[in-house]
Amino acid sequence: MKRPARIARAGSRCCLRRGLLSLLVPAFLAILPAAPAAAQDRIWMNTKTLAAWCGGDADADPAMAFALDRACAGILRGYLQTVRFYFSGSATPPFCAPAEVTVEIARETFLDWARRHPESGHQSEILSLHQAMAKGFPCSRFRRLAE
Q1: Is residue 37 very low, low, confident or very high in pLDDT (cuts 50, 70, 90)?
Q2: Considering the domain 41-146, what is its CATH architecture?
Q3: For the chain, what is the mean pLDDT?
Q4: How far is residue 34 from each of residues 28, 30, 43, 95, measured CA to CA in Å?
Q5: Which of 61, 65, 114, 130 has the fewest C-beta atoms lying within 10 Å of its C-beta?
Q6: Is the pLDDT of residue 36 over 50?
Q7: According to the UniProt entry, where is the signal peptide (predicted)?
Q8: Residue 59, burial from CB neighbour count under 10 angstroms (0-12, 13-18, 19+)
Q9: For residue 86, what pLDDT is reported?
Q10: DSSP class of 35
Q11: Secondary structure string (H, E, C) spanning 89-144
Q12: Contact in structure between 132 and 83 (CB atoms under 8 Å)
């Protein structure tokens, strides 16, 4: 079956556009200046920053405090959901939090751990979340409760 000429031309233009984009986008990205090393270091969060976001600041602007609170909640929720999903199979989880653990309970567990371990302020927030949740929800304690 032969396609009408109008459709054939539109299809070739579409492919031509895709081809040009596939050439131009990498070229454009290559000419963008790289961020300075100091700026790249600030991209990644650490334990101290997450604790500040989650702990709230009484002197902060209310809109900023709300935004940081929601950012903290999003990070904690994402972390908990990712760990629960990843370790739902046969892998041994790093902690055994009951299903009813809320973001607020996880926040308090993390903040309590961060206050007790100020030396961990510059380590990855994910490593600190692992350590805090493992301390707050050890598997041996919750396995005994379930038996």
Answers
A1: very low
A2: Orthogonal Bundle (1.10)
A3: 74
A4: 13, 9, 13, 39
A5: 61
A6: no
A7: 1-39
A8: exposed
A9: 83
A10: P
A11: CCCCCCCCCCCCCCHHHHHHHHHHHHHHCHHHCCCEHHHHHHHHHHHHCCHHHHHH
A12: no
Give yes or no for residue 52 having a pLDDT over 80.
yes
DSSP code of 46?
Answer: B
Per-residue model confidence as pLDDT tens digits over 82-105: 888 888 776 777 888 887 889 999
Its pTM surpasses 0.85: no
Contact 101, 28 (CB under 8 A): no
The structural domains of the chain, with segments of one domain joined by +, span 5-32, 41-146
Q: Which DSSP category does 61 fall into?
A: -
Range 7-16 contact pairs with CB under 8 angstroms and sequence separation of 24 or more = none
